[in-house]
Amino acid sequence: MIVVKGGVTTAKGFLASGVKAGIKKSKKTDLGLLYSEIPAVAAGAFTINRFQASPVKISKAHLKNNAHHAIIVNSGNANCANGKRGDMDALLMADYIAKIMGLNRKDVLVASTGIIGKVLPIDKIKNRIPYLVSGLSEKGGSDFAEAILTTDTEKKEFAVKMKLGSSVVTIGGACKGVGMIYPNIKIENHATMLAFITTDAAISKKMLEGALNEAIDSSFNMISVDGDMSTNDCCFILANGIAGNKKIKSKDGNYQKFVRGLKFLTSELAKMLVIDGEGATKFVTIDVIGAEHQGDAKRIARKISTSNLLKCCIYGEDPNWGRIISACGASGVEFNPSKVDVYLGDIKVLSGGSCVKGYDKNKAKRLFKRKKIYIKVDLKSGRSKATAWTCDFSKEYVEINSEYST
Amino acid sequence: MIVVKGGVTTAKGFLASGVKAGIKKSKKTDLGLLYSEIPAVAAGAFTINRFQASPVKISKAHLKNNAHHAIIVNSGNANCANGKRGDMDALLMADYIAKIMGLNRKDVLVASTGIIGKVLPIDKIKNRIPYLVSGLSEKGGSDFAEAILTTDTEKKEFAVKMKLGSSVVTIGGACKGVGMIYPNIKIENHATMLAFITTDAAISKKMLEGALNEAIDSSFNMISVDGDMSTNDCCFILANGIAGNKKIKSKDGNYQKFVRGLKFLTSELAKMLVIDGEGATKFVTIDVIGAEHQGDAKRIARKISTSNLLKCCIYGEDPNWGRIISACGASGVEFNPSKVDVYLGDIKVLSGGSCVKGYDKNKAKRLFKRKKIYIKVDLKSGRSKATAWTCDFSKEYVEINSEYST
Asked: Which of B401, B403, B405 to mutate to test the interface with A (most CBs of A within 10 A)?
């Protein structure tokens, strides 16, 4: 597998575009279209929030189809809590694309991100559809990646290539964050993280769903900016088969290889979301090892990643590791606290549940002055492990989120 | 029931004191003692954090006794993650009091609050024990309430009187917060909230435990400052029977009356913790009504109370209610989103899951400029309800917690 410069239009047969429809106050691009030239199999993972935005409902219904051609996305408005009108508007977004491109409405998937509880300006969207479609291009990946952004400060794109048999397969993707980020998406489940992945691999719908689930569980589902789960989170993958590899129909070697590539791609995209997290000044990696079950390791890593107190002291460059063990113990996981070791970088600060006397406090302070912080918790009870990524909690985060809607 | 000015020494037969032992850098009082002149029955509720501080372990063990005389408390150091040395130090705190006062060590309960992972300066404590004991007084409630504080800006005391039969029974209490506040304490369970309650009621240990559990479930366990659960949370109640009421031995009318009084007291103390929450500028009440089960109502109310995004927009006086429904849907509770109504004060903003067109946005903005904010969610699915209290999330919170240990 190699990393290549690119995004959603790097895999063969995918076109994309982005235009300004006037949905965002900022007047930046806010409407994007992703298109596969031939029918693609698709899988989607959605927020498990009980309040689901209209585009989530519509896309879930459309995904029952076997093949898809396009995904239309708007930013600046979540189209959530708009009742039947909202559902109708989400459906209209798909309809407009279907009509102009000669597709069935169910060939088109829909996503939205932005403020909740405001009526979607559907006429503005309708007016820009012709430009959106005529703008489709193999070079349009970046325009698409730009159009889906909200409070993000930069585009998030990534692509990899790998060999499956004698065929070269490409996977590319784009995503946006960067607040209300605590995804827990499943096939048929939940962020307002939006992620769009394209591949020219030939793969069955069932295997594509399996691969997406495996990939997001160790990537998007292991990041946190603020611990708030969105009504709009979704991650889509389209696979059009143009690469010509022997179609993946079972969990064979090629499937595993494809999953490794997809995992790497989604992890890199997920980390970009954290690095660009609202107000973030630090990037924090939390490894939990030595757990009895992987679920335990994940739960502890995620609980630590959402501790406001820990995130504040990371902002303040203060290695107050008591907040790590406090979060660890609050995870609800059963473990023996008198076995636990905790490391800040390579410094052991807790050994067998007890503070290490005379550890190098000045070195710990220096580690916390870096941009990248590494925390490790060893439960010493088994062989399972998990990694979570988070950012610090800054005054800028509070500023950004106290002024968003007005 | 009437409210009276007072605290832990308002009920008959209780004495208290507070001294400076030099544990806190601030050089404020940091060692407190609470004492019942005759043996009292006691109940305690503790953090469910897997990492439990040494005083929590010791107090849990001592509570197996049938009667108790004293509680010793230090602030400035949590005595947590100090291994066997920590356990020994917590035991020594009880021992010093027992020896000088002629008690058994198990008659004495212990609590600590402050930084995690620093060795307790037990010699400083030992040196001040004689002054702590000689300072015991019926007027010492406020000194005690002062000595237990950490980042609190003021003392938190409350007292009520009620008639049980022909006897006047008094319940008084003091507590401290005000960060790492997301208690979930149970008898044999978990905050660094510390709360100390005294009463002269005559009541059996079993009924006292039941009453405490009922009271904390609708008070301390329904507040949040930052969603971080401490290793040191505890709530103690001592009942010495001096009031001379007919001893409460079953869940009779007098028990119910006592519980109502205790609930009122713990609710008032809990609200004081929120009002004085770290960096708090607003006090938020969240009512969830119309739930099928009370557990559902509690879970939703608590989830809303811990939404960082909501708390940021309350700080910014921005009525961005989408964040209420997003948190509500992320609670994990099954409900029908298309039934839900949401109110800001008396303004209905969501009706049957859909945004109310043309609600008075200027009025909503005015409501959010007040010190006290009221939010109501009606699930319209049943008759159960719950109330949670929280504060806003301010830049000051981040400032306080980015600078705590250094």
From this structure: B401
